Amino acid sequence: MTDFDKLKEDFTHYLESNRYRKTPERYAILRKIDAQEHLFSVYSLHSLMQAEFPVSLATIYNTLNMLVDCKLIIRHKFEEQIVMYEKKTSDVIMSNYTVCNECGKTTKFTDNNISKSVEKKIFAKFEPSHYSLYVFGLCNKCKQKKLPTKK
Ligand SMILES: [Zn+2]
Q: What is the spatial distance between Cα 65 and Cα 120, in angstroms, rounded to a whole number?
């Protein structure tokens, strides 16, 4: 069984137990999400879908909400307006990202020291499930653009 088969099985189970329709659109969105290596937004997913399986923005929203609900993806809220999603894998439990203030590019990085200190932390009256750390700044590309041009 591939990772996608497992994902599909979990999603099918969720749709059936909630009596939602098992539409080809929903599975096409799931397949596209499975191919994503990084965070994605509703809009980036929507534009990715247009080439092979055009779906409406409403369908994307709807399906993402279902996938968050059945815990197959994670919703990241950066600020009021910015919401990104990510497929859930075992290493998502501990995730660190750099986020560019200009272009929004997100890159994952690992840092065992951070992971270990979160793991060791004991929370009062709270059971942690996962954590995300965001380091905001400027990516190299945007930094280059901001440099004054030499004459
Ligand atoms: Zn940038």
A: 32
